[in-house]
Design goal:
The complex is a heterodimer of chains A (361) and B (282). Chain A is mostly helical. Chain A has helices at 2-33, 44-69, 77-96, 109-113, 129-153, 158-177, 203-229, 231-241, 243-248, 253-279, 289-302, 308-327, 332-346, 350-360; strands at 189-190, 194-195, 198-199, 281-282. The N and C termini of chain A lie close together (8 Å). Chain B has one domain: P-loop containing nucleotide triphosphate hydrolases (Rossmann fold). The model of chain B is unreliable at 1-27 (pLDDT under 50).
C-alpha cells in the first residue's frame, strides 16, 4: 500500500511539473504565433488570467508548506504576498519616470499630489531591479523571521497563533492605508509602464511574465518537495503531530518552525512580486484578512499536506471564482463558504484526497 | 565503590559549588553529598514544585546510580510524572537542585538540550509519530546532529541503517517497518517508543508505565529488555503493575505526596508499615 502511495505521489509530481512545462511552451505559441481568428488562439486576457492563477498557486504552495506539513495555520500569509508585491510595485513605480500624470521625473504621482518635495529614504534604490528583487525576498523574510522568532519562542501555537497572524496582516492593512506611510495610501501603486524596459501592456511581456511565473512555481514545487522528503521534512511532520515528543528527542522545535515559516513567507513574497506586474496594481486590500483566509480555503479544498493539492485547489477555486463572479457576483462568497463546508465535511483530505484514496485501494 | 578513581577523574569544583549553593554548612553533610554525587547519574536534591498552591513535589531528593535499574511506584498524584517533567526540563521546580552525570545542571537546560545531553524519556501514553512510517520514527530518534541544516541534508549511512535494523529486530517490528506508526497496536506503539529510546542511546532512560496495555507475553519481553539495558545505561521505570516491578526491580522507591516515603528492595518496601498504609495496604 505504501509503495503504491509513493508511486502515486511521484506520478502526481510529474503531472504538476509536466503541466507547468506545457503551459510555458503552449501559451506563448497560442498567444503570439497562432493568428487571432483561429480557435486555437489564446487571448492576452486569458494569458494574464492564467499567469494570475500561477501566482495564486505559488501562494497556496507556501501556505501548504507551513500548514499542511508543520501544522502552523497562518491566517496572515497575504501579508507576505503583499509585501513582495509592494517591493515589486515600488520598482515599477520608479520605472514610470517622468511619464506620470504630473510629469515629475523624481517623484511618483501620489507623492506629488501629497506635496512631497523629495523621495523618502526607504524608496532609495528601488529604481534598480536587483535591489528591488532583494527586497521582494527580504521584506517578507525578515518580517516572518522577527514575528516567528517571538511567536515560536513563546510557544504560541494553534488558534492563538492563527489569531496573531491575522492581527499582523490587519495591522499592516491599516498601516498601508495611511497616506503618510509613503506607499500610495488607499490607492496603492499603479499605472505601471514597463518592467526591465519592456512595455507591460505588450503581449510579449505578458507571455514572458506567465512563463516566469510557471518556472518560479515549478522551482518552488521542486524545492518544497525536496524539503518535505528530507529528514527535516519528517521532523516538521512530527512537530505537527506531537510537538513535545520532538523536543524530548533533542530537536529545537522553535528553530524548525522558524525556518519553514521564513521559507514559506519568502515564497509568498515571490508570488506577490510576480502577481503585481500582471494585474497592474498593488493596494492595501491585499493585506485584508479575508484574502489570507481565502488562501487557506484553497489549500483545504485542494487537500493539504501534499503540495500538489494546494496548487490544484488554488487553480480550481480561482477558476470557479472567475466564472462565478462573471455570472452572479453577489453569490460568490456564499459559494466559496459552501464549498469549504462541503469539502470539510465530505472530503476532509481535499480534492487531491480522492485520487489518494483510489490509489490506496 | 572505587572512590579514589572517581575523585581523581572528576574536577571537584562543581561538587563543592553545589554543596555551597545548597547552603549546607556542616562539613559532614557536604562530604556525604559529594560522595552521592560521585557515583550518580542523576542527583535530585530538595526539589519542590507547586501548582497553584498544591505541592506536586515536596522537597524530593533522589539519587540514581550509574547503571542502576530503579523502579518508582506510588499512588496517583504522588508526583512520579512531575518528577520526570523536572528531570527532562518540561517543568521548572520552585526550589532544589538537579544534576545529571555529576556536573550537568539540568535546571539550566532546555528540553532539547537535556535530550542531547543523554536523557531519554518514554511517555505514559505512547507517543509516536502516527503519520510517519515506523522506520522513520526510529530514524528521527537516532542519535545524530539534530540542527536544521544537518537534517535538511541528512542521509542515512550504512552503519545507521544497520543500527535501525537491529533496533527493529529488538522491538520485534521488523515486519512493520514500512507501516505508518498509527496503524500499530497499543502494545506495538509502546515497543516502538522504547525502540526510539534505544535509538537515542541515552545514558539515562526514564520510562513511564512501559507495560500499560500490553499482553502477558509482551510484558515479559519488556521486562527482559529493560533488565538487559541496565548496567550499560541507567533506567528509571515508573509502573503501577506490581508484578512487573517485582520481576525487574532490584531497588524500589516509593513516592507519596511528592516525597520519598521508602526506598529499598521490593521485600523491604512491601513490608514497610508506612508503605502498607498508603499504597500497598488493604
Amino acid at each position: 500500500m505504501m509503495t503504491a502511495l509513493r508511486a502515486r505521489s511521484r506520478v502526481s509530481d510529474l503531472v504538476v511539473l509536466g503541466t507547468l512545462v506545457l503551459l510555458a511552451v503552449v501559451v506563448p505559441l497560442a498567444n503570439l504565433l497562432v493568428p487571432s481568428d483561429s480557435i486555437f488562439h489564446l487571448s492576452t486576457f486569458s494569458v494574464t488570467l492564467i499567469g494570475k492563477y500561477l501566482c495564486y498557486a505559488l501562494l497556496a504552495l507556501s501556505v501548504d508548506l507551513v500548514w499542511g506539513y508543520c501544522g502552523i495555520l497562518s491566517l496572515g500569509h497575504g501579508a507576505f504576498f503583499a509585501l513582495g508585491g509592494y517591493a515589486m510595485g515600488m520598482y515599477l513605480m520608479r520605472q514610470i519616470g517622468d511619464r506620470g500624470v504630473y510629469g515629475n521625473p523624481l517623484l511618483p504621482d501620489f507623492m506629488v499630489f501629497l506635496n512631497w518635495q523629495e523621495l523618502p529614504w526607504y524608496w532609495w534604490g528601488f529604481s534598480h531591479f536587483p535591489f528591488a528583487m532583494l527586497f521582494v525576498v527580504l521584506a517578507p523574510g525578515l518580517l516572518a523571521l522577527v514575528f516567528g522568532w517571538f511567536a515560536f519562542r513563546s510557544r504560541v501555537t494553534g488558534v492563538y497563533l492563527s489569531i496573531i497572524t491575522q492581527a499582523l496582516t490587519y495591522a499592516l492593512l491599516l498601516a498601508f492605508f495611511r497616506n503618510d506611510m509613503g506607499f500610495g495610501g488607499n490607492n496603492g501603486l499603479t499605472d505601471f509602464k514597463e518592467i526591465l524596459g519592456f512595455d507591460l501592456h505588450a503581449d510579449g511581456t505578458r507571455v514572458a511574465l506567465l512563463v516566469t511565473s510557471a518556472v518560479a512555481l515549478a522551482l518552488a514545487f521542486v524545492g518544497c518537495r525536496a524539503i518535505s522528503n528530507s529528514r527535516y521534512g519528517r521532523v516538521v511532520v512530527a512537530i505537527r503531530d506531537a510537538e513535545d515528543r520532538v523536543r524530548f528527542l533533542g530537536y529545537r522545535v522553535e528553530h524548525f518552525k522558524l525556518w519553514i515559516f521564513v521559507v514559506s513567507a519568502v515564497l509568498a513574497g515571490i508570488a506577490g512580486a510576480l502577481y503585481v506586474p500582471q494585474v497592474g496594481i498593488i493596494n492595501p486590500s491585499e493585506f485584508s484578512p479575508l484574502n489570507s483566509i481565502e488562501v487557506v480555503i484553497w489549500v483545504a479544498i485542494g487537500g493539504r499536506g501534499w503540495l500538489y493539492g494546494a496548487i490544484l485547489g488554488a487553480v480550481l477555486v480561482n477558476y470557479a471564482k472567475t466564472q462565478f463572479t462573471g455570472l452572479l457576483p453577489e453569490a460568490w462568497l456564499f459559494v466559496l463558504g459552501a464549498l469549504f463546508v462541503l469539502v470539510t465535511l465530505f472530503l476532509p483530505r481535499g480534492v487531491a484526497g480522492i485520487g489518494r484514496a483510489a490509489a490506496a485501494k | 565503590m572505587n572512590d579514589a578513581i572517581m575523585k581523581a577523574a572528576v574536577p571537584p569544583v562543581n561538587v563543592t559549588a553545589t554543596a555551597v549553593d545548597a547552603g549546607i554548612d556542616t562539613r559532614s553533610a557536604a562530604d556525604e553529598q559529594q560522595d552521592l554525587l560521585h557515583g550518580s547519574i542523576l542527583y535530585l536534591n530538595g526539589i519542590t514544585v507547586s501548582f497553584d498552591g498544591f505541592r506536586a513535589l515536596d522537597n524530593l531528593s533522589l539519587v540514581i546510580a550509574r547503571g542502576e535499574l530503579r523502579c518508582i511506584i506510588g499512588p496517583n498524584g504522588a508526583g512520579k510524572t512531575t518528577m520526570m517533567d523536572v528531570v527532562t526540563g518540561k517543568t521548572r521546580p520552585d526550589d532544589g537542585q538537579a544534576f545529571f552525570d555529576r556536573n550537568t545542571d539540568l535546571l539550566k537546560l532546555t528540553e532539547p538540550e537535556i535530550a542531547r545531553a543523554g536523557i531519554g524519556r518514554k511517555f505514559q501514553k505512547p507517543t509516536v509519530f502516527d503519520q510517519l512510517p515506523v522506520y522513520v520514527n526510529l530514524e528521527l530518534a537516532m542519535r545524530a546532529d539534530k540542527g536544521v541544516w544537518a537534517t535538511l541534508f541528512a542521509r542515512l549511512s550504512g552503519e545507521q541503517r544497520d543500527r535501525i535494523d537491529s533496533v527493529l529486530h529488538t522491538i520485534g517490528l521488523i515486519e512493520c517497518r514500512r507501516l505508518h506508526a498509527g496503524a500499530l497496536s497499543h502494545g506495538q506503539k509502546q515497543w516502538l517508543e522504547i525502540g526510539m529510546l534505544l535509538m537515542q542511546e541515552p545514558q539515562l532512560m526514564l520510562v513511564d508505565e512501559p507495560v500499560a496495555g500490553m499482553t502477558h507475553q509482551e510484558t515479559e519481553r519488556t521486562a527482559e529488555l529493560l533488565v538487559s539495558l541496565a548496567g550499560e545505561r541507567s533506567v528509571v521505570v515508573v509502573e503501577h503493575d506490581m508484578e512487573f516491578v517485582r520481576s525487574i526491580a532490584r531497588r524500589v522507591t516509593v513516592l507519596h505526596e511528592g516525597r520519598v516515603l521508602a526506598e529499598g528492595d521490593m521485600d523491604t518496601v512491601q513490608n514497610d508499615p508506612k508503605v502498607i498504609e498508603v499504597y500497598l495496604g488493604s
